[in-house]
């Protein structure tokens, strides 16, 4: 079945859509972060995606994390640390010309189960890194800064 976004695209074409979504910054026991390389852009990013009807931000994050990494995270293990919605940072144009302004809630995950198996339809490769691989998707750079500020202050970050 087509995603909600795919259904909307049939009606509105490539024009700008506002899209709620979520992303997961997964940190392993060695303090390495999970990055994946996007099939769309070839850039490194965090697991993320858009909400489906009936989804909460947590459910969206857990579903996208599973679809893109093969790993299972319990919704209650997702800790919100930031929101990313600033249009000049989080408006994306895909290779096919589709444009979305994303409103994402960013979660940290430190517990999950399963074996890392990148989702072949969206992800070229994935792994845990001590330093971000490059080149990074520009919004991912912003999320890493928001996460660093959250870790330093303990305060939720919003942009």
Q: Summarize the biggest pleated sheet.
A: 6 strands, mixed
Per DSSP E runs of 2 or more residues, the count of β-strands stands at 9
Note the gap between the termini.
Answer: 33 Å
Order of helices and strands: HEEEEHEHEEEHE
| Principal-axes shape call | globular
Structural class: alpha+beta
Rg result: 15 Å
**Average pLDDT value?**
96
Strand coverage percent:
25-35%
Q: How much helicity do the residues have? A: 25-40%
Number of helices: 4
Q: Uncertain runs with pLDDT below 50, 5 residues or more?
A: none
Can you describe what's shown?
With 159 residues, this protein is of the alpha+beta class. Helix content is 26%, strand content 32%. The protein contains four helices and nine strands, in the order αββββαβαβββαβ. It has helices spanning 4-12, 57-69, 87-90, 138-153, and strands at 17-26, 33-38, 44-45, 48-50, 78-84, 91-93, 99-109, 123-129, 157-158. Strands 1, 4, 5, 6, 7 and 9 form a six-stranded mixed sheet that branches. A three-stranded antiparallel sheet has the order 3-2-8, with no helix packed on it. A hairpin with a 5-residue loop joins strand 2 (33-38) and strand 3. The longest helix has 16 residues, at 138-153. It is globular.
